[in-house]
Design a protein that fits this description.
With 678 residues, the chain is mainly beta. It has 3 domains: 148 residues, Jelly Rolls (Sandwich); 211 residues, Jelly Rolls, CATH 2.60.120; 271 residues, Glycosyl hydrolase domain, family 43 (Tachylectin-2, Chain A, 5 Propeller). It is built from 6 helices and 51 strands. Strands 1, 5, 6, 7, 11, 12, 14 and 15 form an 8-stranded antiparallel beta sheet that branches. It has a 6-stranded antiparallel beta sheet with strand order 4-3-2-8-16-13, with no helix packed on it. It is globular and about 80 Å long. The N terminus is likely disordered.
Length: 678
């Protein structure tokens, strides 16, 4: 067996080495940042009197981050009357609780509840006695963006959820897993060894953390403090200690408006120097609206909120795109399409605007339905993307279900006025199965379509608008990883591409804009857009020793840009070079690049062992012996470029701590060339 591919990675823990490689001018850490970096192993403890045993799904104590991932002490959510370790979408919650004892408290007894997290093992205690213990696939780590809730399970885009009716005597958070003996030794209002990092006694009449780790607490709804206790009514009462990370609407934008909710597909339209970002979104269980944001530089975004909502009786909405009316010089109108699922099938509708901000839904008489000569009557019918048609009007391409005999994989049609559409026979497609149309543009005399298939965005090529379309011979997998649905954006400075990026918890963000580049052989790739230099707000000079960068985790939560040289190995047999990004104690993710510029990304231990490739990316081009790299990192999302070509968009399994290592040969040389910005 060969050695681990990164056995010579710089180990991150020795203090002397760490200090020698700290970035100059780094901001002083607060107690919160220091104590919450990589908080994976931990214990949540609370003393309470439960109002009744019939209530469901309320939480005594919750840690939740900005991506809405949480760990909590929850009562009666999966099974009535039973305590459990709650988590986002039950990712770290055992669903089979049949053998667990039910709560029998009489509403007067003070109970101690605790959940200890140690590696992949979670143990629930009641009055210092093990209540349940099990292992999970992946523990959750919390950073400086962690918010603490008492009496509430969740707060986020869906509002406050999971109130608990109880009286809270005291709550604590420890940064170590406590066992039964340690928990038995704890008493309210008395110090402990080890010390907690968060402590709420309520003895002084305030909801503040007496350890100073968490921000000032706030009482919400009917929550009140009396007799040294927090009283919760189970209806609207809770306490929150909210860590406010300054929200940069630049790198990896996502909406915050609760009427918008979470977004999915995105598309842009540039007009008079303003970028208009539209996105399909949902504020409840189904995709129910289209919302938007605007920007003057394509980097920093101002949220505008909802512009369209699903009609009465509609199950859910689908995505769309925006174009100018074919008669724009006369009517000054912009047009948008979107789909709605009404009854047994999905069909397409339209809206119009004169300012790209206020939109009016057009009448149902313009509903565009499946032409059953070529398309399945109840098949997909979604998201028209337009191309100017010779002689006026537009050709359109959209997600559809053509009949098998046509040899097609998407819809094709035309319009004279932009809102009255005629379906045509679908183009024949070779080299790819069914999927979704992202966008199509004419580049250097050929037609390039970004097509979603199998969770990837791939490239299809044609010589005529009517096709046939064939899979690209090189860089066919245009966009992969934790991302999807790329769209083109024509600008006076050239053709750009946007797409969304998906965190492991499912939260969707907008990726940075990329430049669409086509080489002399006609291969399409995505590249760094120079407009993204506006992300570089404040330079931080790296020290010229070692091969380690050390950022404050608040910077990582707000976003950092790291650039440098990455010397590649000299032969196929040599160990790869790359980056190590820490996101937990003794664990992180490695980006490894071999001599041919092929990258692999996956988990790895801090000592370089245990690497497992989760993705392998070959952009099918030469990068030279020492390409420049760019790393964009915010929270758990990253983008990695070599010589300004996008290699991969990726989501870490936990928030980055701020420690980044350079791997393998040339690390010292590369470290001297590093540049970084907040």
């Amino acid at each position: 067996m060969s050695d681990p591919p990164c056995r010579h990675i710089v180990r991150l823990w020795p203090l002397a080495f760490l200090c020698g490689c700290a970035l100059a001018q780094a901001p002083k850490q607060t107690a919160s940042a220091a104590k919450l970096r990589g908080l994976t192993d931990k214990t949540l403890v609370v003393w309470l009197t439960l109002a009744n045993t019939t209530q469901r799904a309320g939480s005594a104590l919750t840690l939740i981050d900005s991506a809405e991932r949480f760990d909590a002490i929850v009562f009666g959510e999966v099974a009535p009357g039973k305590w459990m370790a709650g988590s986002d979408f039950f990712r770290r919650t055992q669903r089979d609780q049949a053998a667990w004892p039910a709560e029998t408290a009489d509403g007067k007894a003070v109970l101690q509840l605790a959940v200890a997290y140690q590696g992949k093992r979670i143990t629930l205690y009641r009055n210092a006695k093990p209540h349940a213990s099990y292992e999970v696939a992946q523990p959750q780590s919390f950073g400086a963006d962690a918010t603490l809730l008492i009496g509430l399970r969740y707060i986020g885009h869906m509002g406050p959820i999971g109130h608990l009716a109880a009286t809270i005597e005291e709550a604590r958070v420890y940064d170590v897993p406590l066992d039964a003996a340690a928990l038995a030794a704890l008493q309210p209002n008395k110090p402990s060894t080890p010390k907690p990092i968060g402590l709420w006694t309520f003895e002084d009449g305030t909801p503040d953390d007496t350890m100073g780790t968490f921000p000032t607490g706030k009482l919400c709804g009917g929550a009140r403090i009396a007799d040294g206790k927090l009283h919760l009514n189970g209806k609207d009462a809770y306490m929150i200690a909210e860590s406010v990370v300054p929200e940069s609407h630049g790198m990896f934008y996502r909406p915050r408006d609760r009427q918008t909710g979470v977004m999915w597909d995105t598309w842009l339209f540039l007009h008079k120097g303003v970028y208009h970002l539209y996105y399909l979104a949902k504020s409840g269980g189904q995709w129910d609206n289209i919302s938007m944001a605007t920007s003057k530089d394509g980097v920093h975004w101002t949220e505008r909120g909802r512009i369209l909502a699903k009609a009465e009786g509609v199950t859910w909405m689908g995505t769309g795109s925006t174009w100018k009316s074919p008669s724009f010089e006369k009517d000054g109108k912009f047009q948008m399409n979107f789909s709605e699922w009404r009854g047994p099938r999905q069909t397409i509708f339209f809206a119009e605007s004169k300012d790209l901000l206020s939109w009016t839904r057009l009448g149902n008489e313009l509903e565009f339905v499946q032409d059953t000569r070529w398309y399945e009557e109840k098949g997909r019918w979604d998201c028209i993307w337009t191309l100017p048609r010779e002689g006026g009007g537009y050709y359109g391409y959209w997600t559809a279900t053509p009949k098998k005999a046509t040899g097609g994989q998407f819809g094709f049609g035309e319009t004279d006025d932009g809102v009255t559409w005629k379906a045509l026979e679908p183009p024949r497609v070779h080299g790819v199965g069914e999927g979704e149309v992202g966008a199509i543009e004419k580049i250097a005399g050929r037609y390039y379509m970004m097509f979603g298939s199998g969770g990837l965005m791939v490239t299809l090529l044609a010589d005529r608008p009517q096709g046939p379309f064939s899979a690209a011979k090189r860089n066919f997998r245009l966009l992969s990883g934790h991302t999807y649905f790329a769209r083109f954006l024509p600008t006076p400075g050239g053709l750009l591409v946007n797409h969304h990026s998906i965190a492991r918890g499912g939260m969707v963000h907008m990726g940075t804009l990329k430049r669409a580049v086509v080489d002399k052989d006609g291969t399409l790739r995505l590249a760094w857009w120079e407009g993204n230099d506006a992300l570089k707000h404040e330079a931080i000079e790296a020290a010229n020793k070692g091969a380690l960068c050390f950022f404050d985790d608040r910077d990582v939560a707000g976003g950092i840009v790291l650039e440098g040289i990455l010397p590649l190995p000299g032969s196929d047999d040599a160990k790869p070079s790359g980056l190590y990004i820490e996101h937990g104690r003794d664990t992180g993710t490695a980006i490894l690049v071999n001599a041919k510029g092929i990258a692999e990304i996956g988990p790895m231990a801090a000592d370089g062992s245990g690497f497992k490739a989760e993705s392998r990316i070959d952009r099918e081009m030469a990068f030279g012996p020492a390409p420049r790299f760019r790393l964009l990192l915010r929270h758990s999302l990253l983008e990695f470029f070599l010589n300004d070509i996008l290699i991969q968009c990726y989501s870490l399994p936990a928030p980055a701590t701020g420690r980044i290592g350079l791997i393998q040969g040339g690390a010292q040389e590369a470290a001297r060339a590093l540049k970084s910005w907040r």
